[in-house]
Design brief:
Blueprint lengths: L3 E4 L2 E5 L3 E5 L9 E5 H20 L8 H11 L5 H18 L3 H9 L6
Antiparallel strand pairs: 1-2, 2-3, 3-4
Helix pairs in contact: 2-3, 3-4
């Protein structure tokens, strides 16, 4: 499998023994992280635990308009337009959920997406 862009300037590759994360597509990345099986399992376990905590967390108050605009702009500070749209979708869904619109957001999240 060849190098794959994950988003946020992060690329993944593998050498058959470990997964390698880099922050540049060129031949000389600024940062390299190699994850062998046991470390990858620990990362996945951490992610699952964090995801569970996030689902149980109750937002204290909705995001304000200024912060929303700032975070929305950051969604498109990427070279991958599709990834930016996916991040923007998540942001809008999170804000709507914090306002009590969980049912409508659930419908949106289940709908097919196509960005082109």
């Amino acid at each position: 499998m060849s190098k794959l862009y994950l988003g946020d300037s992060v690329y993944v590759d593998n050498d058959g023994y470990s997964i390698t994360l880099t922050d540049r597509a060129g031949t000389e990345p600024a940062n390299i992280i190699r994850l062998r099986g046991h470390i990858m399992e620990a990362v996945i376990a951490y992610w699952r635990a964090m995801e569970g905590e996030r689902k149980r967390a109750k937002p204290t108050e909705p995001m304000g308009p200024e912060m929303f605009a700032k975070v929305m702009k950051s969604c498109f500070d990427t070279y991958d337009t599709e990834e930016g749209h996916a991040e923007a979708d998540d942001l809008m869904c999170n804000v709507l959920e914090s306002l009590g619109y969980q049912d409508g957001v659930a419908v949106f999240r289940q709908a097919g997406k196509w960005y082109a």
